[in-house]
Write a structure and sequence with these properties.
α3 crosses α4. The longest helix has 19 residues. The protein is an all-alpha fold and 74 residues long. It has 4 helices and no strands.
Length: 74
Amino acid sequence: MFRDRLLDGYARENLLSARWLSEIDRFMKLRELVLYTAIRRVGRREALDPWCRAYLERHRQRILDDRPVWPEAG
């Protein structure tokens, strides 16, 4: 659902070529990795707010398994 809403919203303001549209899954994987790394760098896990802790828990195994951000992707 997030993917569809993101792309619909973007399309209202900008044109996205087929080439860049084909790269959106890679871009979102990079976003996931960067956000995960940034949260991990903040400090001890116990000191993180609940949203950050939940993000780390949700995304850790998917990153380790190299699964796509969106199930229907690649």
